[in-house]
Design goal:
With 229 residues, the chain is mainly alpha-helical. It has helices spanning 15-19, 26-33, 40-84, 91-106, 109-118, 122-125, 156-194, 200-228, and strands at residues 3-4, 10-11.
Length: 229
């Protein structure tokens, strides 16, 4: 995003950083932008123009990241709706869209890394989000079962009666498991979107975990069908 000077000419928000280049020595400028037969003014102008081009390219990369962030949040919202409606067949296209969104940002990784290095912004650009914590079936609430009842039963009729007694708890447990997985899936996508998929490892882990969470959600759905239908 650019700002305007009082005269109305375009002024890059990093102009102050560019102006600092003027304090470079002649030898430093020559090393940075080539030799100009002792013409320091020409070297300064070339350095500033080179930096301006670098910032412009970074702005283009940032635009891709901003658009990916917006798209990722929309995907997270849509996934939340589909998971709540248990529209299992409509979820894979959203996961494909998630992968494509992340891939668009991946295409900017090389230019962003090089430009940040040239502009001395590696430390700022190197800040990373936290790692993605995977969710497994072990992390989910357990399912009550008459077969695991500590009291034990003498015959199948008693087991069946105990199963009927446990049915409401079983239904609630399945709902909680499905809800936990759905919330985790949406949270993973939203966290990746919040940083615009800009950190490669975090983005890849997020996309992979979204796929794993969907598979776990399908498994929970099948278990509920087995126990309650």
């Amino acid at each position: 995003m650019r700002s305007r000077t009082p005269e109305g000419t375009a002024r890059h928000p990093h102009t102050d950083e560019l102006a600092a280049a003027v304090s470079m020595t002649g030898s430093q400028l020559a090393q940075a932008v080539g030799r100009f037969d002792g013409d320091k003014a020409a070297m300064v102008l070339a350095a500033v123009r080179t930096a301006e081009r670098a910032f412009t390219e970074l702005d283009d990369c940032d635009k891709v990241i901003d658009e990916a962030s917006e798209a990722g949040r929309a995907i997270a919202d849509r996934l939340g709706e589909l998971l709540a409606a248990e529209a299992a067949d409509e979820i894979p296209p959203q996961l494909h869209a998630l992968e494509a969104t992340s891939a668009r940002v991946r295409d900017t990784d090389g230019p962003r890394t090089l430009l940040n290095r040239l502009l001395g912004r590696e430390e700022e650009a190197g800040q990373k989000p936290s790692t993605v914590r995977p969710l497994t079936s072990v992390d989910l609430p357990g399912l009550p079962s008459a077969y695991r009842d500590e009291e034990g039963f003498a015959d199948l009729m008693a087991v069946a009666a105990r199963g009927a007694e446990l049915a409401p708890r079983l239904r609630d447990a399945h709902a909680e498991r499905l809800g936990d997985v759905a919330a985790h899936l949406v949270r993973v996508v939203r966290q990746a979107a919040d940083v615009g998929f800009a950190e490669p490892v975090f983005a890849d882990e997020s996309v992979h975990e979204a796929r794993r969470a969907y598979a776990l959600w399908l498994r929970c759905l099948a278990e509920r069908k087995r126990d309650l239908d």
